[in-house]
Specification:
about 100 residues; alpha+beta; four-stranded antiparallel beta sheet; 3 helices; 4 strands; about 20% strand
């Protein structure tokens, strides 16, 4: 049986979490949020700040880096969907 941190959240549980997570959306089995920046360098700097937090959590987002934008995709692949680990990392990323 999966531990509480790796159990997939229900749609209702995710919706409840998203009420306090501005900008995050559910797309398929992922939490997704675009972050906008003035230029490419600021976008890459943001990724550099996410990296140690993700490494410390042992949980690594998919990141799409474009000029002036980073889109963060979070899912727990081993669980097959969104878990508390994703919510926790999303909130950490929002603090950066």
């Amino acid at each position: 049986m999966a531990s509480p941190t790796t159990s997939v959240l229900t749609r209702e549980q995710i919706a409840e979490q998203l009420r306090s997570m501005p900008g995050w959306q559910v797309q398929g089995n992922e939490l997704v949020k675009p972050y906008r920046f003035k230029n490419f360098l600021e976008a890459v700097d943001f990724v550099d700040k996410i990296t140690p937090e993700a490494e410390a959590a042992g949980h690594h987002p998919d990141l799409l880096v474009r000029w002036g934008e980073v889109t963060v995709h979070l899912t727990t692949h081993s669980a097959g969907g969104v878990t508390e680990k994703d919510v926790k990392l999303a909130n950490t990323i929002d603090q950066i």
